[in-house]
Write a structure and sequence with these properties.
Length: 81
Amino acid sequence: MNLSELKKGEKARVIGISQGCTAEVHQRFLDLGFVKGVAIEIQNISPLRDPVAYNIHNTLISLRLDDAKMIAIEKIEHEES
């Protein structure tokens, strides 16, 4: 599943970045904190549904849906104790 498919109220964990993106975009995602294992959730959705603001490392990062499609995630079904 990719980040653009995440719904508001769901939590997920980043599992990787698409190999189809350029090296510059890949590095930008890493610089923004989209590293394997980090938790992420939707904070806000713009009125036209693009871009979407994500909470990652207690920071809001806004991504267009085309960029969010390049981030692979897995949903977190329940909080781990």
